[in-house]
Amino acid sequence: xxxxxxxxxxxKRAEILRxxxxxxxRKGFHAAGMREIADGLGMAPGALYYYFxxxxxxLYACQMLSLERLQGSAQDIAVRLxxxxxxxxxxxxxxxxxxxxxxxxxxxxxxxxxxxEPMLRRVVSKRDEPGHVVV
Length: 135
Description:
mainly alpha; Tetracycline Repressor, domain 2
């Protein structure tokens, strides 16, 4: 199957996010550098800026993607015809999976201070969206 330009771009963005979360997890957000992230991908640092404007933009994307995936999982679990206890267990499992998963959603809980105020407000707003999920 041939990937379209948009699909290749999305795949590259996901690869960059995975690498960024590895570096953030190992060094901490403030000690991590765009050059180190780019080097681990075999990219020139300037090429990284084609996909993400800044290191804060990378952290923001990691957090938002993790929240979106968690919300999607919660909605999927909510509509299942299962006892509430099983739904709750599945929701806890999904939460842990997304918090500890490939895009480092746990950074949302540890590195909030790394985001500029407008990005931080959007992440908190996304996190606190009134849910339509009833277990």
